[in-house]
Amino acid sequence: MKNYKNDGDSVHRMFYDTLKGGDFRAREANVFRLAECSASLIDQAVAQGVPFAREYSGYLSNRSFGGVQVSRTFYARGQTGQQLLLGTYQALMRQVKAKKITTYTRHEMLDLVLINGVAKGIIARNLDTGKITRHTANAVVLATGGFGKIYYLSTLAMGCNGSAIWRAHKKGAWMACPSWTQIHPTCLPQSGAYQSKLTLMSESLRNDGRIWVPLTRNDNRKPEDIPEEERDYYLERKYPSYGNLAPRDIASRAAKERIDAGHGVGPLKNAVYLDFKDALANQGKATIAKKYGNLFDMYQKITGINAYNEPMKISPAAHFSMGGLWVDYELSTNIPGLFAIGEANFSDHGANRLGANSLLQACVDGYYILPQTLPHYLAQSGNPEAINKEDPAFIECEQQVTKQLEELGKINGSKTVDYFHRELGKILYDKCGLSRNEKGLIIAIEAIRNLKASFYNDLKIPSKINGINEELEKAGRVVDYLEIGELMCIDALSREESCGAHFRTEFQTNDGEAIRNDEEFKFISCWKKSDNVPLLIKEMLNFEFTKPTERSYK
Prior knowledge:
This protein has helices spanning 11-21, 28-47, 80-97, 163-170, 234-238, 248-263, 277-283, 285-303, 357-380, 392-410, 417-431, 438-458, 470-494, 518-521; strands at residues 62-63, 73-74, 107-115, 118-126, 132-136, 140-142, 175-176, 181-187, 210-214, 231-232, 272-275, 312-321, 324-325, 338-340, 523-528, 535-540. It is an alpha+beta fold.
């Protein structure tokens, strides 16, 4: 947040936009800290060589994202996340070369090791050799991202998973608000049952693209043959103040409502149009190409359609998990010595994340907060005793994960891992996705339990543990997904209100807007693992500097 555009932006405005965007279901202190650190982060990224876009004057350029009415977001064309990753990675490799850091690439965490209730290391598996190794530590930091891939079809990379945080949860770490998952409105639609991933198109496209569907149901005309008076620019109609830059949860629900009502477009009628006709007429092709040229090229490469000549087709897709491990203000979980940062925790976004805040939170947590709070923990811990890899806790943990891997390989059923993952994704998208209700969630919980039983009876994977075995890796992750999915539905069922991305159809206004219940549900749902039913622990939310109001973008 630097207010380069002089459009009235400020730390407080960003703080309020983020809190409101999350439907007042986040801690004020965490959100304010995120806004406060944002300006410094941009300077940090520039110093690392991140090539942010610049104005002719030399100032860094800004543009708007969903849920805000100022130009706040710094960007590197449509590759901001990738460029930030490259800057971070280069900084990391400097430290590796200086022998201050040792990296273990192609390793996956299989379990957390506790000694006397304190995190003292992990068990990992080398994905190339299959060798299981023990790693000791005076503190463990999980920066392993979210679990949005649980829906199977998502914008996330194929290797993304929730196993690290779930294994920590099974060792006692609280899981906070797992049902708060974000469905992104600006993705390429599914084109067939064979797909295993969907493509994210940058939300920045909504700055200049106008979203619409035909007014007539099941309209098979080409978009250029549909006159203006027969088009429904539904976001501009429903949310005139924000228009096409309505927050993601609202834009995604609105798209689904139009698609479900029979106004979808494309071969499968599962998309809406994102049209740049007016922007091209007003600004010219050269200006639009300068802003979004790489995105238009990517779209044409994937779909074969030139978006300069006809509208893009976009559709909602699973993207981000606001829920994650519970952490305190210092990013420590309830397990001493275990920290979670970025999307692995729940802390900053509430029930809905605003655009660009994912990269912001990950960087702020890693660059500014953890370097202060982790040394504080270590200093309070006193002189640490040497940790022995031969400690019974490490031996027992390694034996348990080895046994699980062996048992998965022995099932010898007839169905692939992807079959079970795909079926789980269907259940969750239908019953615990853009909208939920009590009946559907009860059905989903039972369906997931049945699917889990089928998984342990009918899974078929190569049995070898040593060497490369991608199916074994995926099987371990789907085991965790089945358990996470059940907790997601339990969490959604327990929260009898609509807030942000958690939209219970029983709690909505006559015109389809969310009804929040601050009297009974102004808290963070923290779930503790137990032998039978998960135990709910409530962290009450207190608002000193803001007053929770109706979240209106009209």
